[in-house]
Amino acid sequence: MDDVLGELLTVWTIRISLLLFAASILIRLSSPNRRPVGRNLWTIGLLWLFVHIGCAFHFYHEWSHRAALDHTAQQTAEQIGWSFAGGLYFNYVFASLWGFDVLWWWCKPETYLRRSFALNVGIYGFLLFIVFQATVVFASGLTRWTAALVFALMGLLFIRSRIEMSSER
Fold it and tell me: Which long-range contacts (CB under 8 A, 24 or more apart) does 29-38 make?
């Protein structure tokens, strides 16, 4: 029973986190006037990510960093044929960067909203790269196809927002 509960909690906490991640980005790209909703979803998504990390370490790794590294290497080998544990560190950077972004938005919203395009591309580019790897490259079935559609929609909304910004100049 504990195995089933652990799997459900671990899987659904990351699904909720990534749904909120995507919803926040989609809302911000489609309607800049809804930034407060986007910020709330962004923050709640991060909190769900932390719950997911706790579930993964509790139910799968017995709170052992070594076990998490071994599991990451095994999963990577199964997916791409190369045993690489370093993906776990990319996940740590992902959680830290998302957390930094949330804190910046809450603590200094005026500078957050005015930060450079290049900085936004760097931050969101990394976050989206990791989510893409998790949901399209390493996932399968419905998750993969749903994520691919969401990424396509994000791309279209991003292009639309850039066109609108250039026409306003």
Answer: 29/154, 29/157, 29/158, 29/160, 29/161, 30/157, 35/113
Single out the residue of 37, 44, 4 nearest to residue 21, CA to CA: 44
Structure tokens at 59: 């139910």
pLDDT beyond 80 at 121: yes
Assign 137 a pLDDT band (cuts: 50, 70, 90). confident
DSSP 8-state code for residue 62: T
pTM over 0.85: yes
Return d(Cα 18, Cα 13) in angstroms, integer: 9
Residue span of the structural domain in which 126 resides: 2-168
Q: What is the per-residue pLDDT for 11? A: 95
Q: Is the dihedral of CA 87, 83, 75, 60 positive or negative?
A: negative
Which one has a higher pLDDT value, 107 or 168?
107
